[in-house]
Amino acid sequence: MMATTYPIGAAAAAAVLALLGLVAAQGSCPSHTSCKDCIGSPFCGWCSPGRIMFDNGTVGARCADQRDKAAWTCDGIYQTDECIMGYSCEPPPKVPNYTCVKAGLGEGSSNASCTAGCGKAATIYGCDNKTWTCKAVPGGTAGAAGLSVCNKTCAPYAKCNSATWTCDKATPGTPGALPAGQCASSCHDASKYSCSKNYTCEVSSLPFGLDKKGCEDMCHTPKPEPVTPQSLLGLWRGIQINTGFLKGEWVFNFEKASVQVTAPNDATKSWKATVSTLQDPATGRQEVWLVLQSGPDSGKTVKALYEIGPNGPETQHLLLACGEPDVASKALAPKDFDTPMGGAKFGEFLLSQCSEGAPSCSFRPPTTQPAYASWGLEVAGRRLATAQDDPADACNIYKTCSTCITHSSQCGWCSVNVVYNDTSKQGAQCAGFDKQGKPSPSWHCPSHYSRTDCSDYVCDQKTLKCREALPGDQPPFITKDFCETELCKPVKNTSQYSCSHDDWTCHQVPHGTPGASPTIAGCNSACKKPKPVPGYQCSAANNWTCAHIADGGVPSKTVCDASCKKPQPANHTPSGLLGSWRGIAIQNGYATGEWDAKINKSFVQFTDTKGKTWEAVTGAGGGADLTFTVTTGINTGKTIACLFTSASGPETVRMTLAMGVPATGTGAKPPTSYDDALKTGQPVLVLAKCGGKPYCAFP
User: Fold this and answer.
1) Considering the entire predicted model, what is its pTM?
2) Per-residue model confidence as pLDDT tens digits over 493-521
3) Which of 235, 237, 411, 537 has fewest C-beta within 10 Å?
4) Strands 411-414 and 430-432, how do they pair?
5) Please, what's the b/e burial string for 231-263 (b: 16 or more CB within 10 A of its CB; e: otherwise)?
6) CA–CA distance, 655 with 556 (Å, rounded to integer)
7) How far is CA 93 from the centre of its chain?
């Protein structure tokens, strides 16, 4: 049936999702239970010695999906192309002393990490509340810590120092003095900060934001990086949508630092450019800067605003709004997606690309290329990158954690340099996967690997100071601010256990995890896989009859039979489809060019890429989202049953329309899926209509 979404800005959507902690399904990677199977699958990586941990406290699988929208980290060894021999600590009496031994391929931690943690526990101290002095206590004692931390906090009362956000010893009755424990838990800067337009951190007027240190780390004047955003790489096809648009199919081919654009029916309108990326921390805007390398504006810069989504069942969609070409210092990106719609020189484009999870979708380059089609990275007698600084993989060019994790669908940040299996390749902290889901070249992260945040600090237990993680360091890895204000303090016993519905076993989770039990015994007693409940389910594929199923459905066949009826068709158009639509075909063997459709309450007129027109009466129901009873053309008298889905984005409403095989009478069947529809040779169209904005007008 038709799916309708409502427009929402990309930045707002991202913020809402982050606040609510929504997560997407992990795909097929978590189903792999061995390192060998895991690293042989696209976008999968194996974590040892244990499972990945999601930011919301949920324990994941050992085989992780790089594209997972939920934030997760791997503490240990993150392996992508080869199962690494790990080590585990063997205590006496099997060996004379605590010794690290080989744990097997894909198991254990690195030798350095094992060695660092393999030995008797260091002496810890607790506060004697009778004498207010620190004394050695057994491991696991609540509130125990290193001697220096214990001495600082071992007092009956303390006062928060707001300059350093630490608790200083105080005598009872001193203004602001609290019991030492209360001071320790409340003495921190709770303000949230946001980056201003002047690139200074200010207290946020909203109930969310960053701590001050986190804000200061990212709030600086942005500089363009000479690289194409990871999300734009590849071949895109689509239409121009601004006033005065050039009709036909446009093709954008983004490479790692360049783009080649093929215009429809007019080679003089084609162009090429080098690409840089800029992300503004104050506004959240994402821009690409295009330095033109052809045509009358060669050498000038076009600054463009872009947004990915909402996407369709087989394709992802890109809206690219271009400013006017000018010298780099004067060129401006559009302030919003409305601005270039009034007929700017380069205009605005709605483009589509095959999604990574669409196996039957395949786009091909134009059959006739402009003269510059073989143009590479050689520009004005100089190379953009020399052989000496050519990165080992595409993610290496991101030199900071914050820029690396903005491309988290393919890149991630290692707290130390990754190790490439090809020793001629120099390691870098930002590494990732190619578009086919393979680590190219192969690598592994020997320490802390993260895709969505820059939490790579540890508390040094010897000095009780925070520093960036090094090979061999033990988790937890967290932000510097959290480390300094929370972690390097007396350690509390916060072990809790939660039932995983993946394997119905209990796993240790952070304190405070909803539904967690303080003991593993309590968790185990409640962690039972529910028994299946059989029932009946209506099957359209089985001629609208009810069949018994092992789990789910409704309990009574009588109830199922009463509602399991084939819906009757009605001659009308779903209201969301009314209007003028333009777009492209994406089925296997598609013809390049523009498709147009004009749809009213009961009628549709299509014009294909060759300018041929056919017409049909529209309908809905009868087991199909939409039907066309053809009145003109080669299929006159036949019915075409269709699938469709639509979603609203900036400027336009987008629709994917998949047509079934034309048939007479009641023999018309809609495609079983959008993926299957691509293989039939019948039209599968990605179309757009104006969404009510003043400058958008399709004839």
Assistant:
1) 0.51
2) 556 888 887 788 888 877 767 778 888 88
3) 537
4) antiparallel
5) bbbbbbbbbbbbeebeebbbbbbbbbbbbbbbb
6) 38
7) 48
